[in-house]
């Protein structure tokens, strides 16, 4: 799209820009970037150009598209996985955002170690906390549930299905992670606020908090023997950096910038920290840098003299999970349509696997395929398949499957718009949502396959209908299947609008029948759910 340099951006008042900036941060920056250079989503700069490897120059930009067309794209979504916003934003807001993204992006300020220390707050000092569990909750089967739009986390007893506590956290908590001991829940909001929840308290509550960035997604803890609960690490989208903290107080200790050169050799000003996971076999974190395609193995044995191994893979790194052996970490380079596999034992790239459009695995799913042996599964935002990749095994009975390792062995037919796939070691099923699909019925449903026969779905469950909630025009997105500790139940969030009644629908994994609908006026816009035991031990 060659662009006339004389085209001017639509005029906006200061108040309009501030309103649009807030909407962009909450709804758009995660995929398109704070500087709007794109990643999972398209580049949204007013004008951009790039030179391809063959020397051909490509140009484009939001100014060339114009306000009317941008309104339609934002309102109706795209088949590449972008959700429709016509049931989230008003017509006036759609017009506002169409005009805003034609204006030059603002560059936010930095956020230093001093800024982080100034925000740091220990609400309950370590010596004032319980020395043993003070409640009667089965903590290993608690679910930490993100209430996206209220900036809260609901802690739900998986045995009784009762909400035990709702705690104030950062806006739109992205993930919950567990300390190695299982005592503490670490959550991080998209506003960069980290909250530490102590499950041992009579009523579990936040005992410390800190802001590590203006925009963030990832957090994890030190899990290697001898370092249990000692450190936590959180990654920023803006500024692009990660912070190492004390595990029991969240005191910031070290900030490391991730700005640098991409795997293609180009400098990037906004290489955001995507997923972070903690190795079980070394005192290391696997830190995935989105825009550069670099995977960092960060050794935390001596944080004053930090040692980091840098592994080149592919752009743009997002989320991923461990294989069944927990030696290999598989992460989606979703805009490159690849899965990168890291051998954390050797500290090298094990494979770079081509997959379908925009892989989005969450943590993925591990199971033993009847024909191909151990596999790891990812779904896709932009393709109608769930991809199965063969993974290595040191088990002697799996020797015959070695020939398939790091190959795509099957593409299971699904629908586009999948965010998460999930199974459990004791389950006979594979579950996948389709929350980002533009079709209302599909977005409100989940698909289940029998692991013994993946040729066709065993069932498509319409979660919104099963919940029995009042019918509304807005889509109630069925999202994020999560198993109970024993693998006998699957919990699905039904994510409605801010003013709609939302719910969590609990299914019996064996019968696929509804066991319980958990709903409450205080449970607004539930999204991700994290079972304490499964998250602590990376079971998926």
UniProtKB/TrEMBL annotation:
Keyword Nucleotide-binding included in the entry's annotation: no
Cytochrome c domain mapped to chain residues: 15-105
InterPro entries: Cyt_c-like_dom, Cyt_c-like_dom_sf, Cyt_cd1_C_sf, Haem_d1_sf
PROSITE patterns: CYTC
CDD domains: 8prop_hemeD1_NirS (cd20779)
Pfam families: Cytochrom_D1, Cytochrome_CBB3
Name of this protein: Cytochrome D1 domain-containing protein
Lineage start: Bacteria, Pseudomonadati, Pseudomonadota, Betaproteobacteria, Burkholderiales
């Amino acid at each position: 799209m060659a662009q006339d340099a004389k085209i001017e951006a639509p005029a906006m008042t200061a108040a309009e820009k501030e309103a649009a900036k807030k909407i962009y941060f909450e709804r758009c920056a995660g995929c398109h970037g704070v500087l709007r250079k794109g990643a999972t989503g398209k580049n949204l700069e007013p004008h951009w150009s790039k030179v391809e490897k063959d020397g051909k120059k490509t140009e484009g930009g939001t100014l060339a598209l114009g306000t009317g067309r941008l309104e339609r794209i934002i309102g109706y979504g795209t088949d590449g996985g972008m959700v429709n916003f016509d049931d989230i934003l008003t017509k006036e807001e759609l017009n506002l955002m169409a005009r805003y993204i034609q204006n030059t992006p603002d560059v936010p300020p930095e956020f230093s170690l001093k800024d982080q220390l100034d925000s740091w707050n220990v609400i309950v000092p370590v010596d004032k906390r319980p020395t043993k569990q003070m409640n009667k909750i089965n903590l290993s089967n608690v679910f930490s549930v993100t209430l996206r739009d209220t900036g809260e986390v609901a802690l739900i007893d998986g045995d009784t299905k009762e909400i035990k506590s709702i705690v104030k956290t950062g806006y739109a908590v992205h993930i919950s992670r567990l300390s190695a001991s299982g005592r503490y829940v670490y959550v991080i909001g998209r506003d960069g606020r980290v909250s530490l929840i102590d499950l041992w308290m009579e009523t579990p509550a936040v005992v410390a908090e800190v802001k590590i960035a203006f925009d963030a997604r990832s957090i994890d803890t030190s899990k290697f023997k001898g370092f249990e609960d000692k450190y936590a690490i959180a990654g920023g989208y803006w500024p692009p950096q990660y912070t190492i903290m004390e595990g029991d107080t969240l005191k910031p200790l070290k900030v490391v910038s991730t700005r640098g050169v991409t795997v293609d050799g180009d400098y990037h000003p906004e290489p955001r920290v995507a997923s972070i996971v903690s190795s079980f076999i070394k005192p290391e974190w696997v830190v995935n840098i989105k825009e550069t395609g670099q995977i960092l193995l960060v050794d935390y044995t001596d944080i004053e003299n930090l040692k980091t191994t840098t592994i080149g893979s592919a752009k743009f790194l997002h989320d991923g999970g461990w294989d069944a052996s927990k030696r290999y970490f598989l992460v989606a380079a979703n805009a490159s349509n690849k899965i990168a596999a890291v051998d954390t034992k050797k500290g090298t790239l094990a494979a770079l696997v081509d997959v379908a459009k925009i892989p989005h695995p969450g943590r993925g799913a591990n199971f033993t395929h009847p024909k191909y042996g151990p596999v790891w599964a990812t779904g896709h935002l932009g393709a109608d398949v769930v991809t199965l990749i063969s993974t290595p095994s040191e088990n002697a009975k799996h020797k015959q499957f070695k020939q398939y390792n790091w190959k795509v062995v099957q593409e299971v037919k699904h629908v586009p718009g999948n965010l998460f796939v999930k199974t459990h070691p004791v389950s006979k099923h594979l579950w996948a949502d389709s929350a980002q699909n533009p079709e209302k019925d599909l977005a409100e449903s989940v698909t289940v396959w029998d692991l013994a026969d993946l040729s066709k779905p065993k069932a498509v469950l319409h979660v919104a209908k099963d919940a029995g909630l009042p019918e509304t025009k807005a889509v109630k997105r069925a999202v994020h299947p999560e198993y109970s500790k024993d693998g006998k139940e699957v919990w699905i969030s039904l994510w409605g609008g801010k003013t709609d009644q939302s719910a969590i629908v609990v299914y019996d994994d064996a019968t696929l029948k509804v066991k319980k609908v958990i709903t409450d006026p205080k449970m607004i816009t539930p999204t991700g759910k994290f079972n304490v035991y499964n998250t602590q031990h990376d079971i998926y």
